[in-house]
């Protein structure tokens, strides 16, 4: 009986680890052209689309493509992004979104002919931080780690060495939509590809502390 139960638990664990696939995710602002092939998502980004709220520019937009699944608790998520950026503010990367007033988007953004590591944090109003790269890059990995009420954003050129680009507050203990987004505020659209998307569950830190203090 114990062996049977153990085998069932292993099967459940295997199914759970592979349950989340690209095909099972959902669109918010589905673009006209997109395709899932070889475990990657390619799309032509909707022209004149973006995510931004109020500050500096005086407008609010919430109409760019976002492909996501919903996760609760703490996790690590990463994706490889390759884009044919052309126009000012062409951008692509990860998004973590609670609702239209609370989200983080982070990735590559094309500004004034240069590639920038870009993060927008929105809590009713948006802010924007950038790190300008010395030269264009063919692709980039973006990783986000949600722990308690903070999200750490990292970038990598090789999926081995990751460098932090932002640490931002985001409400904890609430489900959020996690996935990848792309936007084209100024241009006529561009092609982008997302590969190696992975969400890794992280055990809740508060619960781990409780278990440690209340160990039998």
Rounded average pLDDT: 91
Question: Tally the helices: what do you get?
Answer: 2
H-E order:
HEEEEEEEEEEEEEEEEH
The name of the CATH architecture is: Sandwich
How many beta-strand segments? 16
Q: Briefly, what CATH class?
A: Mainly Beta
Instruction: Estimate the helix proportion, in percent.
Output: 10-25%
Quick structural overview:
The protein has helices at 2-17, 205-213, and strands spanning 26-28, 33-37, 40-44, 51-53, 60-62, 66-71, 74-83, 90-99, 102-111, 114-123, 125-132, 140-147, 150-156, 163-169, 176-183, 191-202. Helix content is 12%, strand content 53%.
Write the layout of secondary structure elements.
Layout: H1 2-17, E1 26-28, E2 33-37, E3 40-44, E4 51-53, E5 60-62, E6 66-71, E7 74-83, E8 90-99, E9 102-111, E10 114-123, E11 125-132, E12 140-147, E13 150-156, E14 163-169, E15 176-183, E16 191-202, H2 205-213
GO molecular function: hydrolase activity, hydrolyzing O-glycosyl compounds
Pfam family, one: DUF1349
InterPro entries: ConA-like_dom_sf, DUF1349, UCP022704
Folded structure, characterized:
It comes from Bacteroides cellulosilyticus DSM 14838. InterPro entries: ConA-like_dom_sf, DUF1349, UCP022704. The protein has one domain (22-201): Jelly Rolls. The chain is mainly β and 216 residues long. It is built from 2 helices and 16 strands. The strands form 3 sheets. The protein has a 7-stranded antiparallel sheet with strand order 1-6-15-8-9-10-11, with no helix packed on it. The model is unreliable at 1-19 (pLDDT under 50). The relative contact order is 0.23.
